[in-house]
Design goal:
five-stranded mixed sheet, YaeB-like fold, 84 residues
């Protein structure tokens, strides 16, 4: 089953700030693309559970917090930040 991946407006703004200030924009773009790819295909099989509804995924140099709604085949990325 394939899921639709959406980023909240805040996550989109944060990602834009990360990208514009990044020393390696290609790495940020590649990580973003990888995040979208794996979350669309297997959101429960990647990342780590953080609560009953939230999961954490790290694809360096990014980390995202996301929620999966199986009934709607929807993944919502709610937060993104950089990691070392």
């Amino acid at each position: 089953m394939k899921y639709t991946v959406v980023w909240t407006p805040k996550a989109q703004r944060d990602l834009a700030t990360i990208w514009t200030t990044a020393a390696d924009r290609k790495a940020v773009s590649a990580a973003t693309n990888r995040i979208d790819y794996v979350l669309a295909r297997n959101p429960h099989g990647v990342g780590e559970s953080r609560s009953a509804i939230a999961r954490l995924l790290i694809v360096k140099p990014l980390a995202v917090l996301y929620r999966v709604q199986d009934q709607d085949c929807l993944v919502t990325v709610g937060a993104v930040w950089t990691i070392g």
